[in-house]
Fold each of these.
Amino acid sequence: MSLRQRYNGWLAHHRQSASDSLERIFNAPVSSVLTWLVIGIALALPAALEVGLSNARQISDGWNSPAQLSLFMKDSVTAVQTETLREELLARPDIAEVIHISRDEALREFTALSGFADVLDSLEQNPLPNLLLVTPVSGANQSMTLHAELAADPRVAEAVMDMAWLQRLNNLMELGQRLVLALGGILVAGVVLILGNTIRLAIESRREEIVIVKLVGGSNAFVRRPFLYTGLWYGVGGGFFAALLVATALWFLGAPVADLAQSYQSTFRLGGLGIMGSLNLVILGGLLGLTGAWLAVSRHLGSIAPR
């Protein structure tokens, strides 16, 4: 037999194995759909969490800016003294900008934004202090040291690091990313085990057929091939269901999130997996299906031999 004939026979058996395994799956629609759903849910959970983190990261990226310090002056510090401190801070090389907001300006802004104009007008005196907004030089990494130094100034009642919350948010997002990776690893292992058990049951149901094929000289590779394609189809179907579940969840949450963003005068919209993300999920499912099938066939096929 020539090399070309061997190649044509090998290719023909691949085609036959792929079509036959897919036909067997469709012949048992209920069990196949249940298997696809189980795999899809296992893959959709980490994918949905990753999409959520990506959306949160998109929001936080728009907030990234040099950390700003808010210096609230003591009540006894006048506007002139506050302006003197502003000029002292502007002379420092580690400070890019200092904005002085007087207590009268702060009261007018608070009145306009809060909607309590009548209540605020009834106050005998302005309760708000003079304020300095200090912006460190972009890229400076001594913000905490600067915060401690300015907070110790006798003219300052309180110094607030306005971006400290964003640093905590970034730390939480890093923790979330690690949790997603850990959960994803566990669920991926679960998918491999589910597929391995499914293929093991398929092997047991076709034990007599396997024995006959080996009796007539069929190699382990020849016998293994249909089961590998079965695992591939289960994995691809599970990845498709996972992408569908994530898309459905995002569609369900899209309108409420858009309404919430609009209430904050934001144009933010939930981002999804996209075509490439969905395709990657399907490919990942197929690879996991092949892996689970390979492990199951390698483990159980050797124990089936003609007597």
Amino acid sequence: MVHVTPQAAAAADTVRLDVWLWAARFFKTRALAKQAIEGGKVQVAGQGAKPSRAVRAGESLVVRRGDDVFEVQVLGTSDRRGSASVAQALYSETEASREARLKAAAERRAAATGYRPPLTKPDKRARRLIQALGDLDAL
């Protein structure tokens, strides 16, 4: 007969935060997840956390990855990295977070469509044209 202590039973449904972020596919490697946590990019219940913090189902997380901010509710725990569909089953993103993230992405795409950087530096003639056009705006 195997005797299971309450601490061992509680530990079975918890996972380290950096492992969970890696398994849920927020970061490619566990080391990147650890760096993000230590850099303050991940909050658990509105507070900063350590990479070794235990994550349980029902907790809320805020994950900042680049320009994207994810507000998620933990639905399950896993210490193994699976397919994307398995990873998405570990959390649910709030509707407000999803809308804000998609809106910000659309704004970034719209801002980037109007500008194309030149392939080379402008030559002497092009510099003079740029300067002449710049003077027109001053009038």
Amino acid sequence: MSGQYGHFHKYVGEKCTHPYPEERYRTEVTRLLGVLDKRLEGREFLVDDGFSIADMATFPWLECIRGPKGYGSPQLLEPHKNVTAYLDRCLARPAVKRGMGVTPFPERK
């Protein structure tokens, strides 16, 4: 859902002037952020045993939503304090920092 939202929000531009696709995916991403926020309540990571492949598959999409080189829609994350704190924890991990530098987001025009 996050990828679809990003596609219509940032990359489609004038190819699709109808508001429905972006609204539909933004609404679904917002709903899923609420589900994720509840899951993270009282937890550091998605699985109780600590940082796992589930986190590795999840946090980059959140960074796409927040980050200026991604979709640049941090306002979607603002109401979800557990999600925001979770993303910050994931990005603060030394191995994640190194990994994020291997293939950085390309600059978009």
